[in-house]
Description:
- By secondary structure, the protein is α+β, with helices and mostly antiparallel strands.
- β4, α3 and β5 (99-103) form a beta-alpha-beta unit.
Amino acid sequence: MLEFRDIVTPVDCLVTEKTTLQEAVEIFREKKWNLLPVTDNEKNLLGVFTRSGLYQMILEGSPLETAIRPYIKKEARSIRIDTPYYEIEQIVKTSKVGTGVVLDEEDKVIGLLTKTEMVVALLKSANTLKDQLETILHHSNIGVLMTDGNMQMIYANEAFVKISGRTIESIISRKLGDIFPGLLNGDDTPHHYEKFKSILHVSSYETVNHEEGKILLFQDISEFEKMAEELETVKKLKLTIETTLENAYDGILMTDEKNMITMVSPPMLELFSLEKNEVLYKPVEQVLPQLKLGNVFKSEMAEVSDFNEMNGIRYIVHRIPIKKDGKVIGAIGKVMFRQLNEVSELFKRLQKAENKASFYHQQLQKSESARFTWDHIFSKDPYMEKLKKSAAKAAKGRSTVLIRGESGTGKELFAHAIHNSSARSEGKFVVVNCAAIPEDLLESEFFGYEEGAFTGAKQRGKIGKFDLANGGTLFLDEIGDMSLSLQAKLLRVLQEREFYRVGGNVRVKVDVRIIAATNRNLEEMVRQGEFREDLYYRLNVISLNIPPLRDRVQDVEYLITGLMKELNSMLGTSITGISSQAKTALLRYEWPGNVRELRNVLERAMTFAEHGKIQAEDLPDYLLSQLSSPLIEQISLAEDAELGAIRKALFQTNGNKAKAARLLGISRSGLYEKIKKYQLSV
């Protein structure tokens, strides 16, 4: 007679409250159990750790070394080993628990009684085939086959039909070996049957004819495979969420059902001046009460807050409940604060009438866009690299930028690159050359005019550069050539962000970032009364000084290479290099026209070159004279650095040798000696 001990799965491992998440995962995967009995060191039952607890720990992001103690279920179904067999039968019929813990006579944990083992026991003890099949179908989805003493199929359930892909009609009354050859390997121990991706349990039973029939149970192992897949999916999902939060533009945090913060993005920490360890796994109402995230647990609905302010930064909070089965199990708080003013202005502009929107759209199509990025500014000079980094940082803000430097140094390239790397890169980039537009037309170019404002005015009027640049950037080149009267009107626009069109009496509001450029000494112009002091300070918020090419000796050769590639593409030429004699002439020239002049010289030379390389005769005559001038001795790296420092000091002081000497920390006579040594023309 079958005994209870025969159907118990022995527990040969020790799981305690100190067992870690990693150890539990390894035991689940090795044993393929549905739960782990948790005991003390004396094998006394304390509870069970289920797969649900395992999934919960993973979803909460618990580290692998975390102990399972908080996730142990204290209510555990246990069965003593000396329980009468008829009671076991009753337990199988009434229990909804998939696995029970088996205790010995001293109430020590010795094993598990699984659903499969319960089904096998019930099959062996049931009185009729009908009762056996009904019990199996009621308690599990295990595939079942039964044979008589001649190995002829007498029963197959629907679960087995799904597993095997065969119909019941094609199975019944046929020999097991004919339909599924090799299914029985002569060993009744459970083993993996690859064809049906199942664990095969084989048992014998006594038929009514006192023959030995077979019962074959197929337990779907995809359940275990799904567990491994779910673990991997959970890991990937957690990584995806963390990556999204790390790169989120707005501030985002997530809480669990207890409103404890489980994830937070860097922008959120940055806005509220918090560290990650001050926030994670803390109550959100304690750390960030101003978010009022607890509201969604009461209302169970998403909501958006009014405007709030933190350190002068306005923000709004989007509160979103996370629901499962109609219950709020957490919340997401999204804080929008970056460029909120621009967003607000955008909505206002969208409310304009359709006819004006159409008119503005046509005009916007005619405006310019920024064409250059930082990659178009060729340089290996350390000062220039530092300048590019500073300009890139300045681009992220909204402040006015003043770019200074000699003609041809690349001031407009910097302006283009600043716009393209700013938050306004999708907006227009409008260029106004203050020196190229006649004085009497400058005001109407800037602000536009209304219909009939003056004789010859276009019908419907004309919008100005500020209108065109609304939401984008206005680049004012040669700002030093602007008249004093227009300077006053420009100052008003910068301060008030509004203006009147010529001949109009309606205030026009604009949102424009100003980038100005000049090759003139604005400080001297202010002293001479040629430039308004208040406008100078308004423009000179962030000042970038681009050094002339003569102060960037190491850049000349680098620029030659980069410009030749660009010009080959533009001119359709195939110039592969430059002769040493021609390169010497280019390296020794002072380049008063800076990069623009170098580009023009190379374009001319590449057009004239006939031998695949630029030769000396392809250069302008005034450059060839450099070949006959005495060559400065080869200088060391230290001398090269000294030469660069002297040139920068002279550039920053506009050639004032006394000030330059003070900047360098040397005497004026010492500076004169070095100027003579390096043959500098100042």
